Amino acid sequence: MPNASNTPVSDFPGTVTEWQKREGRHHLPWQGTRDPYCIWLSEIMLQQTQVTTVIGYYTRFLERFPTIQALAQAEQEEVMPYWAGLGYYARARNLHRCAREICQNWSGRFPGTSAEIATLPGIGRSTAAAIAAFAYGERSPIMDGNVKRVFTRHFGIFGVTSARVTEQALWDKADAVLTDAPPSLDMAAYTQGLMDLGSTVCMRGKPACGRCPLQHSCYAYAEGRQSELPSPKPRKEKPERDCAMLVLTRGGAVLLERRPSTGIWGGLWSLPEFPDAEALASGCADMGLDASLAQRMGGLAHVFTHFKLNIEPWYLEWDAPETEEPTCEDHIWVSKQDLANAALPAPVRKILDGLAGSEPMLF
């Protein structure tokens, strides 16, 4: 039942556009620019991340990398600290790869169409269309999570939105809306309006239907089926994984290791990680450390998209001379004062925050 409504699309884009200009968001730092670099950065940061969280990261990132050339010339190690804590770190790696590809293959100029933009690393169809709409006024539909919610409710499109048949129905409807829209449609305002509606009015849990400009033509509102759309995904239990982390200190520094470039927290600095406490003890022995002196700290859990990670940190002070280095590669000593500037995953930063001015919380 991919489409339960024959709601006309002719009034849809104009209503959304007028509402955005009147009541939508206009204060965000990436609005009011046609610079595709700034727009691209904001769109990538906003994937899977709330606006309030992104604002500070966006501002700091642009201060350090004000142009696509500045980003391309930087090493990945320089980029990651400005993404640490934002999550989904493949976005940062793809952002860096993309900047270099644009400088190498596009003479440093951002591609001018959504079709060309979509060929770049980490940029899908919807993100490419959003960039092209905001930067160039291109008439291409978007379909991110917020927009899917608006479309499924307004047009009565049933089915899990990640399913191919449902997704195709959504894109077909989005194309039809633009086909019937007048040539004078303000694409930037329409595109922003869809995002604003999904984010501030047509919300997941409690949609504010009384404030919605589309209420008069909305299928879900007329049928009282807001809670059924978008169609919920079948619930799955998140698998759980366990690990042990070594909080090894020496003087005023803590030992960090670089994560592999792929996988979770790729390219970030983290605490040495082991499958369990027994493996941690073995790793300590390999480094010439007495694991029996390690003390277990308060554990914590971190939830990823596809699984839950239970972390058991162990604290150990090493009294070796500062000239002596660990035997493993990709390990560095970072002073407690410099941890604030290190590219650390959020749960690792939480573990280390207690080291800056006090003793660790031990069991």
Explain what this protein looks like in three dimensions:
It is a single chain. The chain has 363 residues and is α+β, with helices and mostly antiparallel strands. It has 2 domains: 12-228, Hypothetical protein, domain 2 (Endonuclease III, domain 1); 240-353, Nucleoside Triphosphate Pyrophosphohydrolase (Alpha-Beta Complex), CATH 3.90.79.10. It is built from 14 helices and 8 strands. The chain has helices at residues 12-23, 36-46, 51-64, 68-73, 76-79, 90-105, 114-117, 125-136, 145-155, 164-180, 187-200, 219-223, 277-286, 346-353, and strands spanning 240-250, 253-258, 269-270, 273-274, 295-296, 300-303, 308-317, 331-335. Strands 1, 2, 3, 4, 5, 6, 7 and 8 form an 8-stranded mixed beta sheet that branches. A hairpin with a 2-residue loop joins strand 1 and strand 2. Helix 1 crosses helix 11. The radius of gyration is 24 Å and the shape is globular. The chain starts with 11 loop residues before the first helix and ends in a 10-residue tail after the last helix. The mean pLDDT is 91.
Helix-strand layout with pairing:
Elements: H1 12-23, H2 36-46, H3 51-64, H4 68-73, H5 76-79, H6 90-105, H7 114-117, H8 125-136, H9 145-155, H10 164-180, H11 187-200, H12 219-223, E1 240-250, E2 253-258, E3 269-270, E4 273-274, H13 277-286, E5 295-296, E6 300-303, E7 308-317, E8 331-335, H14 346-353
Parallel strand pairs: 1-7
Antiparallel strand pairs: 1-2, 1-4, 2-3, 2-8, 5-7, 6-7
Helix pairs in contact: 1-11, 2-3, 2-8, 8-11, 9-11
